[in-house]
Amino acid sequence: EWTKNKRTKTYRIEDENGTVVTDYKKILNVWEKYIGELYKMKQQEEIEIEQEELIDVDDKGPCILKSEMVRAIKDMKRKKATGDDNILAELLKELGRHGMEKLTEPLNKIFLTGEWPRDFLDVTMIALQKKPKCSNHRTISFLSNTGKVMARILNRRLEYKIDQYIGEDQFG
User: Fold this and answer.
1) pTM score over 0.85
2) Of 11-15, 28-32, 94-98, 165-169, which range is least confident?
3) Is the predicted pLDDT of residue 153 greater than 60, yes or no?
4) In-domain check, residue 57
5) Residue 145 and residue 116: Cα distance in Å, rounded?
6) Is residue 122 in some structural domain?
7) One domain for residues 71 and 113
């Protein structure tokens, strides 16, 4: 006869003061505060951003090219979890010419307007428990695969631009 020993494990976490928290809603609050501090960004006024009107049209670069999208999708790994949009990398890899053209349209709209859809910005995070402190956990983030395609394209463009200004002997 097969028997299963079911052990119910009470999840607990320490807050910033070292107090052990076991209430589910309070645990979520502790995590929200911890993640907020961990990934805190500078306020908008602290970041120097050049006004779009002042940027030369040539410096913005061309609209997203099909070849850039093909490369970004080709570089995606298979059998990875999806973000909230539930679009698998395998699905993107199977898009034909027509599908690629259809996907290029909204990505170019994002590129031209600078307005990212909420789905691209939403992140689902999961904490893998190790010890009671948040800092001892490992977090995994699930992002939209379509958003990853856009981010890869922009990242490659930035790398190309930066490489033009950095000497071959500069590193670190």
Assistant:
1) no
2) 165-169
3) yes
4) no
5) 14
6) yes
7) yes
